[in-house]
UniProtKB/TrEMBL annotation:
Record keywords: Metal-binding, Zinc, Zinc-finger
Family matches, as Pfam families: Lipase_GDSL_2
CDD domains the record matches: SGNH_hydrolase
Domain of life (superkingdom): Eukaryota
Record-given protein name: CCHC-type domain-containing protein
GO terms of molecular function: nucleic acid binding; zinc ion binding
Record-annotated CCHC-type domain positions: 364-377
Length: 380
């Protein structure tokens, strides 16, 4: 019995100890929970505070971005205004340049025709003087009133004939790319003008024509297209651009006679398809076509080397003369009288035989003059 009582007391003590420990553990657990809870709350508060700071930074970034966008818009608008101002200035400069260029060209044409004007006025002066003498001698046989009327009419006729004498001249313009750079102005008529535009294509030549004064020309010969062919432009695009050039010429001078020259054969490109386009254009617009291909190609289909420089594109002196001969078959650009006189003077100066000009009516491939063979040319 005592033993059992003792054991029960021990068990009771142990239970109390365990309970005490459990209570202590629970207290510590509660304390730990409170601590964790407070830490979690602090973390939430810190997180919220951090998020608020991030939001503030984002707001500042957004405001800064908007401000920068506004500044960029102002700068863009300012640059756009500057660009428009530059364009307007450029347009004004182009207009002024075109106006000055036309005046210079007109002045140059007048200066070039000054000798012919002088001869023309001198001739009219002689006619006027002759008419005055005739009228003076006829005073005795006619009434004074009739004589005065006759003199007034003769003066009126002469003055009317002196107005714009240049407009009655048939001037011709040969314009094109560097393929015509070798043409010597002394080898063509005095009323034939040459305008070379190095590296010109059909569109660039169209722009040149727009800025040129072609209203006083009777005929225009277009020698362009080789550079377009070398660039491998699509044939239909080439036709469209050539049509535009023809329309530009007609809009400036509706009564002008237009002649289209074939593209001379080139080593770096087959010009056949582009020349076919030129034939189509000339047919549709009812223009003259100047054939070049057959003259520059041998029977075997190769380029005649004596007509070309080493690049197989640009023409030698002989090639240029052949080009002019082909043009002259369609549009008269040679002054036969002037060339014959020049040949005779040159042959006399160098002791050449004068009978050559009478027996040979062809053209010399060396100097470009008629009346002698290349082997007899005085320039060799």
């Amino acid at each position: 019995m005592l033993m059992n009582c003792y054991m029960r007391e021990n068990i009771t003590q142990d239970e109390n100890s365990v309970k005490s420990l459990l209570h202590q553990l629970l207290d510590k657990t509660d304390s730990l929970f409170e601590l964790v809870k407070s830490i979690d709350k602090q973390c939430i508060e810190d997180k919220q505070d951090f998020q608020n700071k991030i939001d503030q930074v984002n707001d500042r970034i957004t405001a800064f971005s908007k401000k920068m966008c506004t500044i960029d818009e102002h700068q863009t608008q300012h640059l756009y205004d500057i660009e428009n101002s530059v364009k307007l200035v450029k347009v004004d400069q182009d207009k002024n340049f075109s106006h000055v260029h036309n005046k210079i060209q007109s002045l140059a044409d007048r200066v070039k025709d000054l000798p012919s004007r002088t001869q023309y006025n001198a001739k009219n002066f002689e006619v006027e003087k002759s008419n005055e003498n005739i009228d003076y001698r006829s005073v005795n046989s006619n009434t004074a009133n009739t004589s005065k009327t006759y003199i007034d009419q003769s003066h009126t006729t002469i003055r009317n004939s002196q107005i714009f004498p240049d407009e009655r001249k048939e001037k011709t313009l040969i314009i094109g790319s560097s393929i015509i750079k070798g043409i010597d102005a002394n080898k063509v008529g005095k009323d034939v003008h040459i305008r070379t535009n190095r590296g010109a294509t059909v569109p660039t030549l169209t722009e040149k024509i727009k800025k040129s004064n072609i209203q006083h020309y009777k005929s225009i010969i277009l020698v362009v297209g080789g550079n377009d062919a070398s660039s491998r432009i699509h044939p239909e695009a080439f036709k469209e651009k050539y049509d535009d050039m023809i329309k530009t010429v007609k809009s400036i001078n509706p009564g002008i006679n237009i002649a289209v020259s074939e593209i001379c054969p080139r080593r770096n490109v087959d010009t056949e398809i582009y020349n076919a386009i030129l034939h189509r254009v000339s047919t549709e617009h009812k223009l003259k076509i100047i054939k070049q291909t057959d003259a520059f190609v041998s029977r075997g289909g190769d380029l005649v080397s004596s007509y070309y420089h080493r690049d197989g594109i640009h023409l030698t002196n002989q090639g240029t003369i052949l080009l002019l001969r082909n043009i002259n078959k369609v549009v008269n650009i040679f002054n036969q009288t002037t060339i014959s006189q020049s040949n005779n003077e040159s042959n006399e100066q160098h002791g050449k035989r004068q009978t050559i000009a009478k027996t040979f009516n062809g053209i010399c491939f060396n100097c470009g003059f008629y009346g002698h063979h290349c082997k007899d040319c005085h320039t060799l």
